[in-house]
Amino acid sequence: MDFDFPEELAETRKKIREFGLRELTPELAEKYDREEKYPNEIRKKAFEAGIINYENPWGMLMAIEELCRIDPGLGISATVSLFGEEVIMLFGTEEQKQKYLTRVNSGELIMGLAVTEPGGGSDVAGIKTTATRSGDKFIINGAKMFITNGQIADFIVMLVRTSPPNGKRHHGLSTVIVDTKAKGFTANKLEGKLGVRATNTAELVLNNVEIPVENLVGPEGKGFYHIMTFFNISRVYVAAQGLGIAQGALDRMLQYIRKANALGIAEANSESSQFILAEVAAKVEAARLLTYKAASYLFQFKPDPIITSMAKWHAAEAAVFAAEKAMELTGTTGITSDLERFYRDAKILEIWEGTSEVEKLIIARMLTKEEGAQ
Fold it and tell me: Is-above-0.85 flag for pTM?
């Protein structure tokens, strides 16, 4: 078993790293975090440089990891304009793929995915936004909350209820494509977030929004399964976000210790500091192995939900752990550096795309199911 990437992918990583160090400058990272503004010019540069290329899945994973390693807010923002495209890719018609995905993958359009509602996030089957059939249209009413790209997206793939649950709560849900310029569609930007302030997050309000029936993605009533399939893909990329943040925090710990040693500050290389450094390094490496294993299954078109959930859970917690320990180790130096931003940005990874608790439930239930099948 070879744990090294082939030379071609090693060169891809190097190219991404060079781009990130050149474009994701400390000044820009601080500016977009402070102003809570989406860095659209960085997104455009990433497409122009070939950094965002969904046809190269390993390259896409590396882009997320390496850019988040430099700055999580800018890294996530630059790579999230394709968020949700797997739903159309896997379940959409050829006309939908040509109309939407071609332009998203070229960087011309920005898309988003809307599942979470004001009443809850983890309870996907409990959504209340409705899409009522009226002739050749659906009329949508409801609200979505904490939607990434909500205010800047050209269109949103949305989970809605198209019929009563019929005994099972996850029945009667469908996925549809909603044009954000449609009458009755309102996006309210959410500000003052703990972290990832460079990303655009919004509340969506839908008041009699009309969409054509052909904007239904896949068979009506199968939306729950579409979203669960999507999560089993997207969680691998969230794991890459966590891996990048954890590695970035480790990088900064090492920089601090080396600089302190050069200045003769003995405390920076004390036994307790060495223990902290070793613990963080081990968690980062474990996150890397789990993330790459989950990705290898996914990219061979045989995703493993257990490994995917393990990777997402562990990488998210590794990011939070690494950022916290880096702050403890660097003290007042870290408080006034970009580590402060890493510390804030890490926490969201334990929440979005399935909380750590949800990931643990998936792992336990899948393990029990597998055991029962033997």
Answer: yes
Query: According to the 3-state scheme, what is the secondary structure of 130-189?
Result: EEEEECCEEEEEEEEEEEECCCCCCEEEEEEECCCCCCCCCCCEEEEEEECCCCCEEEEE
Domains, the chain: 7-79 (no CATH), 86-221 (2.40.110.10), 225-373 (1.20.140.10)
Give the whole-angstrom CA distance, residue 158 versus residue 161. Answer: 10
Query: Which H helix or E strand runs over 210?
Result: strand 201-212
> What's the token pair of residue 271?
């036994």
Return all residues near 112 (Cβ < 8 A) that are at least 6 apart. Answer: 83, 84, 147, 148, 149, 150, 153, 155, 156, 157
- The answer, yes or no, to whether residue 371 has pLDDT greater than 70, is no
The three-state secondary structure class of 235 is helix
**pLDDT tens readout for residues 104-131:** 999 999 999 999 999 777 788 889 999 9
User: pLDDT, tens digit, for every residue of 277-327?
Assistant: 999 999 999 999 999 999 999 999 999 999 999 999 999 999 999 999 999
* CA distance linking residue 88 with residue 101, whole number of Å: 8
**273, two tokens:** 């500091």
pLDDT at 184 over 90: yes
235 touches 298 (CB < 8 A): no
Q: Are 354 and 234 in contact (CB under 8 A)?
A: no
Residues across the chain: 374
Burial environment of residue 65 by CB neighbours within 10 A (0 to 12, 13 to 18, 19 or more): buried
Asked if 80 and 107 count as a contact pair (C-beta separation under 8 A), the reply is no
Per-residue pLDDT at 269: 74
Q: Strands 173-179 and 216-217: what pairing?
A: antiparallel
DSSP 55-96: TSHHHHHHHHHHHHHH-HHHHHHHH-TTTTHHHHHHHS-HHH
Q: What are the tens digits of pLDDT across the range 1-54?
A: 778 889 999 999 999 999 999 999 999 999 999 999 999 999 999 999 999 998
Is the model's pLDDT at 207 over the cut of 80? yes
The residues assigned a catalytic role are: 353
Residue 5 sits at φ, ψ, to 5 deg, of -75, 150
